[in-house]
Amino acid sequence: MLRRCPHHELPVWRQVQTFYNGVTLANRATIDVAAGGTIIKKLPSEAFNIIDEIATNLYSFGLEKTDKRVANVHSIDAITTLSAQMAALTHKVDNLGAVIWNGAPIRPCGACGQMGHLSQDCRKSIFYS
Question: Contact, 92 vs 85, CB < 8 A?
């Protein structure tokens, strides 16, 4: 806000108060520790300088620690990846209907009446025979 509106004419104490009231409790604790107590007890210019110094240090720290990742050969656009997955799934679904059938009639089990196994393989075949 201060960089975008340099001629805002807000007093320094109002800038410090607005900023301090807008930060999280963890950041307030950091500011208070840097101030050697609560920042409210400092003069507005001192408080502003403390906050400015913290912001400068954190900004510099963030620039040093950023990992620059280089795109490699294996990085693919997300849409291309999803399209390939959809094509593979479509192919699998299409192949589900391509079951090979030798023309022999499919009969249910003589013991239980279910499909998928022969009478001699049925658990109930002991009672059937």
Answer: no
Span 68-96, pLDDT tens digits: 565 555 556 777 777 888 888 887 877 77
Let me know if 125 is exposed, middle or buried by CB neighbors in 10 A (0-12, 13-18, 19+): middle
Supply 103's token pair. Answer: 């023309």
Cβ atoms 81, 50 nearer than 8 A: no
Query: How many Cβ atoms sit within 10 Å of the Cβ of residue 96?
Result: 7
Q: How far apart are the first and last CA of the chain?
A: 90
Global pTM reads 0.43
Q: Is 126 helix (H, G, I), strand (E, B) or coil?
A: helix
The alpha carbons of the chain give a radius of gyration, in whole angstroms, of 37
